Each structure stands twice: as C-alpha cells, then as structure tokens.
Amino acid sequence: MLRHVFCTAMVCGALLSGSHVALAENRLALVIGESAYRAVTPLPNPANDARAMSKLLNDAGFEVTTAADLSQREVNTEVGDFAAKIAAKGPDTVALVFYAGHGVQIDGENYLVPVDVDLKREADIPLQAVRLNDVLNTLNSVPSKMRILLLDACRNNPFPAISGSAGHGLAMVDAKTGAPGTFVSYSTSPGAEAEDGNGADSPYTTALLSAAREPGLPIEEAFKRVRVAVNKATDGRQTPWESSSLTEDFKFIAASGPAAANAGPVPVATKRSADEWKRELQGKPADVAHELIVADGTVEAYEAFVALFMQSQFAHEAHEWLILHRRMVAWNDAVLVNTAASYRAFLALYPDSDLAATARKLIERLRYRPSIVPAVMASAGGSSGSGGNAQPASSGPSQPTNASLGPCAQPTVPLKKVDVTPPPADPQPPVRVTVLPPREPNPVVRTVVLPPPHRVIVSEGPAYHRPPVLYRPIGTGFGGGGFRGPIGFGRMRGRF
C-alpha cells in the first residue's frame, strides 16, 4: 500500500515538474503606440491599440513594458532596455514587440516613424526615424527562444516632403534570412497601406485581440484568422501578411483542461500547388473559396482562385493582390542585389509603379559604383580556409513562404566557384572586397566568377595588415534592402 502511494506521488511529482518546466518560459513584451505626431495630423488609434495589446499580453503571461508617443531617442532607448531585459531573463525567453504608428520605406529600407519627426526632405528619414532592421538586429543581439514583431505601421504616408517619391507601405521582410525563431507580421500587405479604423482600435489590432484570446490556438492559426477578419472588415482593401522562421509552437493563451491534455504538436503545413488548390476550391461558393485563400495567403492559392472565379465579386481583389505581391517580390530582389542592373530590370517590369522614382534614383546613385551581388560574399564565406569568419547565406529564393505585403520572385543564379587561376580579362575591372578573418600568418585570395561582365576578387588577410577596403559589411538585419555579407545580413556601405 505504502509502495503504491509512493509510486503515485512520484508520478504526480514528475507530471507537476513537467508542467512547471512548460510554464517556466519567460515572456517579455514591448508595446509602443505613436499617436501624438507633432508635424502632421495625429493618429487617433495607436495609443488605444497599445493599451489594448498590453492588457492582452498581460493576460497571456507577458511582462509588458508599454510606452506611448516616443521620440526617436526614446524609441531607441526603449528597444535597448528591452534587449537588456531579454538578456537578463535568459535564452528561454519569448520576446514580443508590438508597434502601432506610422511606418515608411525609403530606398527599400523600412523605418518606424517617431512622433518628433519634422521632415523637410526624403534624406531626413534615416536621420530622424528608426530603422526596422536596427530593431531586429538589437533583438537578435541577445539569445532568446523566439522573437515576435507585430507592426500596425503601414498607414498612409502623411509627409508631403516624401509622399511623391517614397513607395507605398513597407518593403518586404523575409524572416527566413535571419535567425531562426522569428515571426514578423504586418497589418497589411507589403507595398499597401493600412487603415487606422473608425472604432477604438485599428482593424488589425481588433482582429488580433479576438484571435489571440482563444486558448490553445497556435500563432500561425491565429494570424490566418486575423487575415480573414481584417479582409472582411475593410471589404478587401487590407489583408495582413506575415513571414515566419519559427521552429517551436507558440500560443498566446495556453489551453486548459482536457484540451491541454490532448494537445499535441501542430502538424507542419505543406505548401500546395496551384493545381492542388484548384481541386480544393472546385465546386465551392465564391465567398467560401475566397475566405480559404485569404487565410492561406499564398500565390498558388490566389492563382487558383483567379482561374476559377473570374466572374465573382472577389476576382478583382484577388487579381490586384497578385499584381502587388509580384511587384513587391521583384522590388525585394532588386534591393537585395542592389545594382544598377537590378533596378533597371525592375523598371523594365514595372515602369509606372510607385517605386519607379526610387529605382531611377538608385540607378543614378550607383552609376559610378562597381556592381556586387549579395551571393559573392556568401559563396566566398562558404569555402574552406575562410578562418571561420563567414556565414553562408541561404541558396533559396528570397521571398517569404506567405508571399505578398509587401506586406513574388525569381531565384538568384547560382554562382560557380573556381580555382585561383586568373580569369580572362573582361571589360569591367574587378572589384576588390576585403574580409577580415581571425589573424592568419598568410593572406588567402579567392576569385569568384559572376555572370559576365562582373568579376569580384575577395581577399582575406590578417586584421593587422589590410589592403584598402572598398566595401565593409555592417549590421545583421533581414531582407528589404539588406545586402548579404560574410558576417550577417545588412546593407553594404562603402568608403570611396
């Protein structure tokens, strides 16, 4: 009898211990609402959105820091302090940032706009706003279990100084090119604009508050519901978008009771082809089929719908979604390559888009700069003998799985590595790029051959003896203007 009681106690103790471990996950959230803009018309809802999200996240077990109407310096301070809190809590921390307010893209870079901006020209944005990649870099600078970034920041551009030259909405961000465990959500598609809403909260926040409160609902399922709800609330004018590299399950509110006991791992969703989607949608009413493709959010789903329901009331909306999505993927590819040729290719496809002015400006800016493609440094870093300093880049296409938002694309041409025998002379002189590995007794020189007429020589040498540096990689951000270098992902800037 005593033995039976002892064994029962041991089993219960093990279960309780396992439950304690499951609940030991640290949750931290930073919630920012920017309403009281000084130089332009204030936004009514971001402050309300921030308060409502703070309450939701508190109920979901997050330790929440809420801040409103911040200047650029205050935003940077809050993000830095938040990273310090993550570091103090340890690597088993879920870090979530919610931002409501204005956001813009300049030259393919996304910026969050603080309330103290006073723009006189487009060049003021990088000086006065907060670069989204810098926020992501800061979150990635400390170990954490996952990073969730929710942006209700694609509202219309109210700044006359840049309204005629900047692209609409935000540029794409591909979470798969950064650290695993990242989830990024936009309140609308890349390249589109979100609505502030007529209620107490924006359509995006209203939908998120509802979906996230359902116990046991995985984050991917929650945001499928958000997409459908926002699309319906705005009559198709706004469809949220996300990109994910999560490797573990996340639920805002954990399931309880029998549901928690029966909960298992979420099955991995398989991507369907357009033909598979046609078979799935065939025979369904147009409104039901439309809801299915909005929830799925993939190009294949939309293509199947357009092919089957050309006469429906949703056909125009789905067709426009595909056009915007493909344009924003083409723009993302052009920005990642960041050469005059890449921007000319974009202009050839979309000469009259809202991004055409930016593309022409970047072509002019790059006129006297040698062309380099991101894969050069990644290819060099992946070779043996690099001193362990470089990180290989993904060889796949740059677009996110849930293609659109800008928030659709061609794979890059694979590069071939050759030996050190000098290639034949070509009309464009080689560009010399310096990589600084750990100290080595002898420099190593590699040649990577690109499709003609481009050729790049990557030199590696000890840090104490450097040849002149033309380009140096900085930052470790995500797509949307990032230039992939050997150390991370970020824009390449040069000394001339």
Task: Report what the structure shows.
- The chain is of the alpha/beta class.
- It has a domain at 23-262: Rossmann fold, CATH 3.40.50.
- 37% of the residues lie in helices and 16% in strands.
- It is built from 16 helices and 17 strands.
- The protein has a six-stranded mixed sheet, with helices on both faces. Strands 10-12-13-11 form a four-stranded mixed sheet, covered by helices on one side.
- Strand 7, helix 6 and strand 8 (182-186) form a beta-alpha-beta unit.
- Helix 13 (315-337) packs antiparallel against helix 14 (340-349).
- The longest helix has 23 residues, at 315-337.
- The radius of gyration is 24 Å and the shape is globular.
- It starts with a helix and ends with a strand.
- Mean pLDDT is 76; it is low at 1-23, 381-420, 430-441 and 443-496.
Query: Which radius of gyration do the C-alpha atoms yield?
Result: 24 Å
- Count of helices? 16
Distance between the termini: 84 Å
Beta-strand segment tally: 17
Spatial order of the strands forming the largest sheet: 2-1-3-7-8-9
> Which consecutive residue ranges, at least 5 long each, have pLDDT under 50?
1-23, 381-420, 430-441, 443-496
